[in-house]
Amino acid sequence: MKRLLDNGTAPDSLVDLIRRCEDVGRVDGAVPPLFDEIIDGLHRIMADLIATPGQQPIDTPWIQEEHVTFIELIGRGGYGEVYLGTWDGKEVALKKVFRGDMGRDLYTAFAAEIEIWSGLKHENVLRLSGACLTTAFPFIVSPFMKYGTALSYLRSVPTTTYQRIKLMLDIARGMAYLHSVGLVHADLKASNVLVADDGTGLVCDFGYAKLESATRQKGADPSERVGTPRWMPPERLLEHTSNKEGDVYAMGMTAYEIWTLERPFGDVPDARLWSRIIDGDLRPCCDSTSVAMPAQLKSLIERCWAPEPKDRPSFEVVEQELQEILFVCPTDIPMPQEPRAVETITAKVAVKRTKRDELNLNVGDVIKVLGRFAGGLEFG
Ligand SMILES: Nc1ncnc2c1ncn2[C@@H]1O[C@H](COP(=O)(O)OP(=O)(O)O)[C@@H](O)[C@H]1O
Ligand SMILES: [Mg+2]
């Protein structure tokens, strides 16, 4: 910091904060900044540093607002909206925050996503093209993928069983790469996978991603409490921690989505699922899908969402097994482009931890039945 101040490259936010602190006791009537103001100031400093040429700790092309045009809203998520737009005349996707007055948490989350994403380079990970933080509505730029997410692609383009497994393999490769550089994605699901023009799967959305080393403090990060529960493992729902094993669990759910195009557990509301996933080991049922799953794929998916994290395979193993499954998969079996009706989606209670008989249940009935199995507890 002293270096920044001495060589005159410190951002204004840093100079202001230091002056306010120095004035205390020196200038009549000067009051020290409140703790909250200091924290807020530090966040602004961080953002200023990221946006100051030559100071950014990351390798991101900084884009000027006037070179970009927003055309059409194509997606909406946790803290922002995604638009189809142009950057210097090229089609791009523009992810921007909802509002200009970014609170501290929002700014941190946005800067963290850019920082993590900008360091990633892999053929199965969506590329970051650039970002702009020096505007009322900061935004991130990435290449526009016309097919959109894995789900929209599979619903609009006829595919075979082989192509579905290949898409799973692409995701496993992208995830194995993330894990190899020490990152946890923490929000893997089919809607966070995009498909390139040649059908290649690309892992995207690093809004919850973090260094594995930063995930070891139990319950330390409030962002662990949000996310998408039906893709979350029991331990994350219970202890609010994300880790590599949790990503593997989410891979199981994502592979299930890609095979069936179904949302795991149909339309049962999140709040009614939590306790059943934690206590009952409730999982989607792979036995009754409209096209039968190859036995090896079913076994892999079920190991990915094993109740105990230690029983889940690593992404290297997932990748290797998917490759073997693909190797023997016929290339001409077409897959449906629509999911089954919601009423026919089933869930199952794993036998492993509960030592109960295996049950095949319609998700609509699952609540009542689990209530009986859990000793007459009232659910819902
Ligand atoms: N590069 C892109 N090309 C096409 N669609 C995209 C692109 N990036 C995001 N989207 C769309 O926007 C949605 C939200 O993007 P995402 O990065 O997942 O943000 P959020 O954190 O808001 O979930 C995606 O599910 C997808 O539909
Ligand atoms: Mg998303």
Automatic annotation (TrEMBL):
One of its GO terms (molecular function) is protein serine/threonine kinase activity. Keywords: ATP-binding, Kinase, Nucleotide-binding, Serine/threonine-protein kinase, Transferase. Pfam families: PK_Tyr_Ser-Thr. SMART domains: S_TKc. It comes from the Eukaryota. InterPro entries: Kinase-like_dom_sf (IPR011009), Prot_kinase_dom (IPR000719), Protein_kinase_ATP_BS (IPR017441), Ser-Thr/Tyr_kinase_cat_dom (IPR001245), Ser/Thr_kinase_AS (IPR008271), Ser/Thr_Kinases-Pseudokinases (IPR051681). ATP binds at residue 95. Residues 68-326 form the Protein kinase domain. PANTHER family: SERINE/THREONINE-PROTEIN KINASE TNNI3K-RELATED. Belongs to the protein kinase superfamily. This is Kinase-like protein. It comes from Gonapodya prolifera (strain JEL478).
